[in-house]
Amino acid sequence: MNPRISLTVRDDGVAHLRMQDKANQNVFSDDFIRELIESLDWLAQNEQVKVLILSGLPEVFSSGADKQNLLDLCAGKIHVKDLLISERLLEMPFPVIAAMDGHAVGGGFIMAVCSDLVIAASESRYGVVFMSLGFTPGMGCTKLLAELVGPYIANEMMYTGKCFKGRELAEKGTNINYILPKAEVMPQAENIGLQISEKNVKSIRLLKQALSASKKKLLIEARVQEDTMHRISFAFPETKKMIEESYGK
Amino acid sequence: MDKEQIYAVIKKHLLENVEDLQEADIDPQKSMKDYGANSLDIIEVVSCAMRELNIKIPRSELAEIKTIDELTNKFVANSSVES
């Protein structure tokens, strides 16, 4: 009755995907990833869509990986599959607006990095916490984060794992399109969505293909290095301990 | 470092990290959550304060702390004697 993802496509071509797994703070559990990928695949097939607004809960956009998946990675049981999310987002045939009124952490923030326009809230926090959990960044972070925030701020975010307030990022200066008071994030996303929806769907898709080519290439490059680093860093005995401690209540 | 100094450091980071909080409003018997701090804000306050005070306490030991005063006491107990 309460799906983890809600999906609407309006007649004007504006689609809205809302991640709303409140009980789990939009973490990438297996069920969540499956529903998210299914929704994105369905949208990619829909030829009416001109633009997608990707949003989460008002408190949290997404908190990224879930504990069990990380522990399974440590045990070598599974391979990193959340990379799928980066790939799918980059492959969307229309522009994606990440409207993050809530926090976006780790893989959750990488979803924004894989979008075409990004809107954040001054009060919410954004960070890539991979290193705080003991392992190296994934999901294309090492190559794509710099595109959104600039290379040196990307370095700071990756090495320190600090979750910055939107207003701190605004002071630093990044490529994030808008950093607004929380209540203004969704209306702004809607406004940009409407502006895009006035354009010809065929030209929108043509432009998206051209503009996303370099990011797709970066993701492929990142994957080779990140996979190797994950194989090494998830096997460190310290990593398992850090993950267990960090997620402990 | 005495309790008063440690409390001042915690308070400073609390004011820096929690939206719309005034110094006069802070009651040490309350939890940071009472002032609207979320879990990411709390992590930031605690880790910034520990860094400044040169204290290291494992997260598992911090988990049961409920109020700002309890946090201050925990820091007092773990602060080095040399200063």
In summary, what is this structure?
The complex is a heterodimer of chains A (249) and B (83). Chain A is built from 10 helices and 12 strands.
Structure in words:
The complex is a heterodimer of chains A (249) and B (83). The mean pLDDT of chain A is 93. Chain A is built from ten helices and twelve strands. Chain A has a single domain, classed as Alpha-Beta Complex (2-enoyl-CoA Hydratase, Chain A, domain 1). Chain A is 51% helix and 18% strand. In chain A, a hairpin with a 4-residue loop joins strand 1 (5-9) and strand 2. Chain B is mostly helical and 83 residues long. Helix content of chain B is 54%, strand content 0%. Chain B contains four helices and no strands. Chain B has helices at residues 3-17, 39-53, 59-62, 68-78. The chains are: A alpha/beta (249), B mainly alpha (83).
Secondary structure layout plus pairing:
The complex is a heterodimer of chains A (249) and B (83).
Chain A (H helix, E strand, L loop, with lengths): L4 E5 L4 E6 L7 E2 L1 H16 L5 E5 L4 E3 L1 E2 L1 H8 L8 H9 L4 E5 L2 E3 L1 H7 L3 E5 L3 E3 L13 H9 L1 H10 L3 E2 H7 L5 E3 L1 H16 L3 H33 L3 H11 L2
Parallel strand pairs in A: 2-4, 3-6, 4-7, 5-8, 7-9, 8-10, 9-12
Antiparallel strand pairs in A: 1-2, 10-11
Chain B lengths: L2 H15 L21 H15 L5 H4 L5 H11 L5
